[in-house]
Design goal:
Number of strands: 2
Largest sheet: 2 strands, antiparallel
Strand order of the largest sheet: 1-2
Number of domains: 2
CATH class of the largest domain: Mainly Alpha
Shape: flat
Length: 315
Amino acid sequence: MGAVPASGRSLGGRARPRHRPRARTLRRRRALIGLLLVSPALAFVTVFFLVPLVLMIWMSLHRWPLLGHTSWIGLGNYRAMGSDPVFWRSLGFTVEYTAIVTPILIVLGFGLALLVRRRRRGVGFFRTVFFMPYVIGFAAASYLFVWLLNPDVGLLDKTLQSLGFTSSPVQWLSTRTLALFAVVLMIVWKTVGFTMLLFMAGLQGIPEDVHEAASVDGASRWTTLRRVTLPLLRRTIALTVILAVVGSMLAFDQFYIITNGGPANQTLTVVYWIYNSSFVNFQLGYGAAMSVVLMLILMVITAVQLYLLRDQAER
């Protein structure tokens, strides 16, 4: 009674699907091809990210001198970090530096993008001028500002004196405030062009019909910017803020070259203190522990930023 006719049809008259094994084979083949295509990227991430990450976490649980034998101390490095005043002072300074640099980069970058987003005569020249400092390396830009800020031969002091703003050379790196101002000035000059480029891409991705519709409805430029442009730039703003915050929290080169952490270690960043602990004091385990904590802080900050700047449709 339960036999199936040789024609491949059931008693109800419906044909049995014969393509299932073939479809299953095609899916397996596609999955295998996809795995082969992404395998170079997986290997790269594994070798250059996952393996060093695991090693860093393992090192943070040991007393790991640069030379000599290692010893397991568990959470000893993390407990030492909690009572290290230099670490907390460097973390506070890094947060302060990030809070100063990030809004300046976002506001200036967005303003420059609004100025050069439309094609008009000569706009290509200004786009190039604004973006050009970004292609300079951090070390080269830092040494350039070391020369500009030099009180004896620097161009900045001579310009200020010739214009009558100062009567004597300014010791730019003599105080914490002036040293921080010098570094912020260099970073803004160097990286604002990249922020401008990101905002330009976001602005050009907004259909012109949207602005025309807002204009027809009687919206002013300020209302259009606040109610139309900025909400549509939410993803771009999230990207620029995350890049600016992460880059500022990982600041090292500019402070190492321009201020050398001075005066009196008052411009010491977290990464600078990790460098000193690892390669000056030869405490690789302690430096690894601080790196783990800094990584966790950046993950939390990035997650909060993505949550606050998510699109309306994602809420």
